[in-house]
């Protein structure tokens, strides 16, 4: 039993290392790329890769023998493996400083928040407000288009169209609104063809303990979840505190 537990822990560690590697370089991961992180041979890593591929957590492009994560792999990573590194004090201070600037009223605060999210995560930031059902704020589209996944003009066209169709985007962001926690939608979980190459990290914000709206990070499925999730949670808290002082 102990051996089985140890082997399963090793498999999880290999999967996590492969996903982290792919997130940071956008390239298929070879066994040699991560063998140096473990006291294992590349051949042993390849065997584990093969098992993970058979189980649907990894796949391989036709043009490469290396592996890339599937959406199932990313889901397992987000739910069980991701190590949320938290936020450095400097980053917290930078975020707080933005809310001590020249924001004038609710609308200005929400619009600025979309930019703060984008700046902090290096993806797109989106903000909705419950009482304005036909309006949302987003900034940072160019940051998504810089990602390798969007070198394809057709993918760019679909994403731009998705952001223009605000009603559908609002429906996604406000989905499961009563859930008071960060929620992650990966690829096809968004149930929106135009955004199947994207992931969306969503959190709520409040005023006087009442839900006011949603904030979100939109990026590629190959998102740096370990950073985006805690950053969004922190901005949610700071925005909620800020709104307490707005009439």
TrEMBL record:
Q: Which domain of life is it from?
A: Bacteria
**Matches recorded under InterPro entries:** GAF-like_dom_sf, HrcA, HrcA_C, WH-like_DNA-bd_sf, WH_DNA-bd_sf, WHTH_HrcA_DNA-bd
Q: Which Pfam families match?
A: HrcA, WHD_HrcA
| Domain Heat-inducible transcription repressor HrcA C-terminal: residue ranges | 133-229
Winged helix-turn-helix transcription repressor HrcA DNA-binding domain boundaries: 11-75
Looking at the keywords, is Nuclease present? Answer: no
Any GO MF annotation of the entry: DNA binding
Keyword Translocase among record annotations: no
Which key words are in the record?
A: Repressor, Stress response, Transcription, Transcription regulation
- A GO BP entry: negative regulation of DNA-templated transcription
Family stated for the protein in its record: Belongs to the HrcA family.
Question: So what does this one do?
Answer: Negative regulator of class I heat shock genes (grpE-dnaK-dnaJ and groELS operons). Prevents heat-shock induction of these operons.
What protein does this entry describe? Heat-inducible transcription repressor HrcA
